[in-house]
Specification:
This protein is mostly beta strands. The chain has a single domain, classed as Beta Barrel (Porin). The protein has two helices and 23 strands. It has a 16-stranded antiparallel β-barrel with strand order 2-5-6-7-8-9-10-13-14-15-16-17-18-19-20-23. The longest helix has 22 residues.
């Protein structure tokens, strides 16, 4: 009788303890499924979907290192002072740059919604006057929004981008073909058969020097003026372009509202062979004053640019450009670009400029009527794109 009672009591105790432990058991929640970044291949390589959205994002840019010597063609050779006697001397022009870029794309009922930005971080050994010294700056180069053909924001002038820049040389503005940075509102119509047209309303940027003649007939500096518009009337750029497999032809015309002057350029591109591509571009402006026109910065009324690219191989190319204006300024730039490995290119360039004159001033703006001056320089560039 006692043994039976003991067994029953032990069994009851075990059941009670087991029930208590079961009540105190920790319940482990099932892990939530991980949310991985999805590749977006709609707009090209490198895009991915921003998690939780339908917006595709790409992040990229480049790291660049330039080493220049001589006058480097465009008169931006670096100067320094001898530590012992104080004499002015030429020195290297060095500059390192990190450029960070972002692209976004999203399909909407009104077309593709895009953005593009580029921010540049520079460190060099010269200031704006050419004197040697540590020089660093940050520049917002691009920041625009585009919906369909409508674009608004910080961009480079459509006067230069719509028909294309000059040749694939580093110093392509030995004879300048236009200014660049501006805020704008533009619209591009693409007919889909190679034909496109554009209208752009622009603010401009930069500055120009004002000179007047004194009582003795000498030119005297009076003011440093803003290049932006001086009222609510914008600068206006109109353009048309036709492109096919053989190349293309394009034209742009610009109205400078501040000075009420016009300028225009016409360009022809020809893909002569699979290895050779050529171009020629001519410009004309009603204002022959080199200092105050945002759209005609060359000397005199007209200027011409020509050049091309010869591909030795998929990795190596020869690029050349010759330019000349009515002010008798001649610019020549030649380089060889070689891709060491994918994404890493080394470019060696030689530049030559024979300065011309326009009116009473030479190309450099000395207003002295001095004889022409020749400049020679070179640049070695290392660039890693990512």
């Amino acid at each position: 009788m006692k043994i039976h009672t003991l067994l029953l009591g032990s069994a009851a105790a075990l059941i009670a303890v087991s029930g208590a432990r079961a009540a105190d058991a920790v319940v482990v929640a099932e892990p939530e499924p991980a949310e991985y970044v999805k590749i977006c291949d709609v707009y090209g390589a490198g895009y991915f979907y921003i998690p939780g959205t339908e917006t595709c994002l790409r992040i990229g840019g480049y790291v660049r290192y330039d080493a220049g010597l001589g006058d480097i063609g465009s008169f931006d050779g670096a100067k320094t002072r001898d530590r012992l006697d104080g004499d002015e001397q030429d020195t290297w022009q060095k500059n390192a740059r990190l450029a960070l870029r972002t692209w976004t794309g999203q399909e909407t009922e009104y077309g593709t919604l895009k953005t593009f930005t580029e921010t540049r971080f520079n460190f060099g050994n010269r200031d704006g006057s050419g004197e040697a010294g540590n020089k660093g700056d940050i520049q917002l180069k691009w920041a625009w929004i585009q919906l369909g053909g409508l674009r608004v924001g910080k961009d480079e002038s459509a006067y230069d981008t719509f028909s294309g820049y000059a040749a694939n040389v580093i110093q392509d503005t030995l004879v300048p073909y236009g200014e660049f940075d501006t805020n704008l509102i533009s619209y591009t119509f693409d007919a889909g058969n190679g034909f496109s047209a554009l209208v752009s309303l622009e603010q401009g940027s930069g500055s120009y020097d004002t000179y007047v003649k004194d009582g003795d007939g000498n030119w005297v500096f009076t003011d440093d003026n803003d290049q932006t518009i001086d009222s609510y009337v914008p600068n206006v750029v109109l353009g048309a372009k036709y492109t096919q497999g053989w190349g293309g032809i394009s034209g742009v015309v610009a109205y400078n509202s501040s000075w009420e002057e016009w300028a225009g350029k016409v360009r022809l591109d020809v893909n002569a062979t699979d290895q050779i591509s050529l171009f020629i571009m001519g410009g004309y402006g009603t204002d022959d004053n080199i200092y105050r026109s945002f759209y005609k910065p060359w000397g005199g009324n007209w200027a011409v640019w020509g050049g091309g690219t010869y591909k030795f191989s998929e990795k190596t190319s020869l690029n050349a450009q010759v330019s000349y204006d009515e002010g008798e300024t001649l610019g020549v730039a030649v380089n060889v670009a070689h891709q060491l490995v994918p994404g890493f290119t080394v470019t060696a360039e030689v530049d030559y400029v024979n300065e011309g004159k326009f009116g009473d001033a030479d190309y450099r703006g000395s207003w002295s009527g001095a004889d022409k001056d020749s400049s020679v320089g070179g640049i070695l560039r290392f660039q890693r794109d990512f």
